[in-house]
Amino acid sequence: MAATRPASPDVREALSRALVDHGDRLYALALRVTRDPDLAADALQDAFATALERAADFRGEASLGTWLHRIVYNKAIDLLRRRGKEAALPDEESIVIGPDDDRLSQSPSWSRPPDEILLGAETVAALERAVLELTPMQRMVFEMREVEGRTTDEVAEILDIPSGTVRVHLHRARLRLRALLSDHFRKARA
Amino acid sequence: MKCDELYRRLTDRADGVLDADACAAVDQHLQDCASCGALRRDLEDLSRLCRESQRPRMPDDVRRRIEALLRTAPV
Question: What CA–CA distance (Å, rounded) separates A143 from A155?
Answer without folding.
Answer: 10
